[in-house]
Amino acid sequence: MKTWMIVSAYILFAPLLGGLLAGIDRKITARMQGRFGPPVLQPFYDVLKLFEKESVAVNHVQNFYILFFLIGVIFTGCLFFSGGDLLMVIFALTLANIFLILGAYSANSPYSSIGALRELMLMMAYEPMVFLVAIGFYMVTGSFGISNLVQSNKMLLPYLPGIFAGFLYILTIKMRKSPFDLSMSHHAHQEIVKGITTEFSGSTLALIEIAHWYENLFLMGFIFLFFTWTSPWGPVVGVLACLVVYFLEILIDNSFARAKWQYVLSSSWAVAATLGFANVVILQLLQK
Amino acid sequence: MPFFSKSPWIIHYDGSSCNGCDIEVLACLTPVYDVERFGVINTGNPKHADILLITGSVNEQNKDVIWQIYNQMPHPKVVAAIGICATSGGIFADCYNVLGGVDKVLPVDLYVPGCAARPEAIIDGVVKALGILGEKRKKMVARAKRKKMVTRLKQMKQKGGESHVRKSALSRHDP
Amino acid sequence: MLFPLLAAGLLAIVRNGKLQGFIVRVSALLIASGSILLAVQTFGGRLSIRVESEWLSYGMLALDIAMSVLIVVFAIRRRKPMAAILTLIQTPLLIWFELSNGHGIVIAADMAIDRLAILMALIIGVVGSLICVYTIPYMKEYHHHHPEFKDRTPFFLAMLFVFLSAMFGIVFSNNLVWMYFFWEVTTLCSFLLIGYTQKKEAVDNAFRALVMNLAGGVGFAAAVVYVGMNLHTMELSALIEMGLKGTIVIVPAVLLAFAGLVKAAQMPFSSWLLGAMVAPTPSSALLHSSTMVKAGVFLIIRLAPILSGNIAGLMVAMVGGITFLLASLAAISQTDAKKLLAWSTVANLGLIVACGGIGTYEAVWAGILLIIFHAVSKSLLFLSVGTVEHNIGSRDIEDMHGMVTKLPEMAVMLTIGIAAMFLAPFGMLISKWAALRAFIDSDNVLIVMALVFGSAATLFYWTKWLGKIVAVLGRSARLENHIKKDEWVSLGFHAAIAVGLCFLFPVISNRVIEPYLEGFYGTQIQSVLSAGNTNLVLMMLGMVLLMPIAMYVYVHLQDEKILTAYMSGVNQGDNRGFTDSFGKPKDMYLANWYMDKYLNEKTLSMIGIAASATTLAVVLMMALGGAL
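ok -> structure tokens follow
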């Protein structure tokens, strides 16, 4: 019963919260750049406007993939917030992302194709670290179940500092922040127009945006898992940590220039292979 | 309806401008003018844009490009000619390769003259464009409704129903 | 088991095309239904068969000698001394052993049919015979496209059936000498199939396969002799029981595992499987999916209980892990579809082998599931690529751009195959997940890392291929379809099985794999996959299966305006070209990303060979050193 309430709450309120976070993000970004910035509700205005636009496409199937991308992301989020299996969440998210990539491929336009390839490369870059996060959780608590992780009787961060640092590194990719916003940056229209979303417009573009709101929310959920424990203070600390991390991401976004793909791939694999690996080895030694 | 006025996304095309107006367009995005206050985003992609800002005159080489970019923008859309060259060809009007202002190729909705156009003027132009966008959206909705009715009528006609009554009702709405 | 042999004999004689087709179809049907019948009949029980006859073992010995003479003859004719030397080591060794010691050993069961054997038999029987059906039209077309090769279709078909028969032999044998015999038959068959075209390249590659597999055979023969002399048994099941009871069986385990690794094309021996690509597609499909390499992993999975937690297991797991990671990375740089599939096979076998090497309950569970799923989807992919090659005249992935409009049926087949190889609700991924858990539980951090990075690479190369297929290319018309009815039957069944298996896997897991494993690991083990997750997987599967229907409805209800793709305003109007800066039209070509500068196949192979050869050498020396 409780699970169902959480899941329906997620479906209903996640886009509101996600959109709000995006709005605050834009406001803070503007302030960091010495501008006034758009209203906090701006992301909602954008999306609602997109729904009012004429629907156009290059072919009849491309928008269909996006529909499944959205469904996939929502499904992943539901899985996450219903306390499902962490590995399952990762697999579902991968599936959802592949629909987005296939949509861009399907449009067969030069800019969306390059965006799709870059997105794919980014997925390859972050996937090992995401798995290592799940592995780290499993090694500490003996379970992949998110419902068990939330009820852990200790904060997990002290056991997983390396993995947390590694996750922060690739979170920049997942949240599409500079320096790793290679596939669909808002700021890269000189080189790749809008990358993977180039050929999507109107309501389909709005769906992509909404999917990202859903996605950002359960990415924050990952951060939450690192910090929370069973005491009443656990969730508070968890939420505060999420906000701090989000702010950190905005700061990173505004202080770095976009990197080359070679750097993104090699550095994120290097982070996973050093920080993540070292953490896992130490955990293993501790358990013996 | 009100959302167009809150989130106008623009695409900026440089015809054969001397870059004076382009610099001024970009200046609008800088912290001093910060058009993002009004939700304006420079998208660089016709498929995402609502307003096409063109600087510089139209010539033989870019007329097809402009036409294609305009066609790739989904409705409702507004074209704004920024600067005197885009308005009428300016001092280049008599050049052998220059066709003239943007309106030689596209239906321009508003002109922002000046050499170069000042950022304040450009922002003012974008704000005016918002009103036009709203009206166009109204027309678009009406047109879609009419299209729906016409198809329904056609279907009824095929069934042999009493369509003439509806038809007269429809013609009254037509401007 | 004998029936395919009969069919092979018939096929070797019959030259008439129609009759040939008829025999193949009927015998394929009989084999498939036979193996299903066997599965139903013996389900659950363990069937042991003891053959008392002396002449049978002498007959096998004679055939062994004949095969080795044949190999020597081939080797002399083509001047490849290595093959001759290797076969001259193992056959006399075995003959000596059989005649001197072999008779004294009492054998309780020459053949044993348990659940694992039945599963394997199903794979061989069903997938193998589907491939045979596919072969009939394929070979006709093949010789039509390649008039320079001599048409030896009857021989080819006969070899396929002999192969199937030998595979049945391997999975049912409990007597190690028998198994060794069938093992050598598959080696010889694969040699003949790879060298089918008799081109220089084909012959070279065939000999490479032969030499490597004979080297594995030497290991096998040595293991047989060691087991017979020291442990006084000839039975695989007895060997495993001894191992579980605490007798030290490390030497035969290492030797047999070595033979298995070679057959399963693990690094440093992976090159034979990659070279095997020169053969006609059905034989590649057969080698890669249901036979040959599966014999290798089958042996390792069989041995898993005695590999768990010792140095032999570590060797197998390390080699598997290294192979999985490097082969996955190497697959990224491949443009040739068959080559990519080959690397992916090597990688997946690496994973299965690693599962066997870890040897815990969960790991073996995952390994067996991987064998099943891999066999079906890989076979489907190979056969699809073969058909596509005949239709578009190329098997380059770049040339498959826009397949969804050109050859929609084949695009669907390829999509099912690819999705089944790596996407979420399909079986491969579930098994991979179980494997990951097993690796963590057994504290093999290095292999966990190999799996994690290798999976990321896997995701990359499959998705970019899928992307090529689904791209909708403007102005491209549907190509005329040359797919024959037999090919359709085979492909359709494959696809249906690939999808159906996903629904069936909880049943397979509960009724077949878990009981099999409980025999070794005790009954107190809970199900690897919890019920909740099974439901989730089925839900996701439902979603994915709904997709084609939803897509059809969606596409037909859509009324969005179709525009040209954005190409900075210089699209030529058909999305296939643009106007360049001189005002001239120029074709657009969208290439995929192969990263061959960074993930060079040769470099990766070198690293892999060095790493895995070192592991092998160290472990072999330790094991043998300890034994001597």
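Chain A touches chain C through 62 residues (CB under 8 Å).
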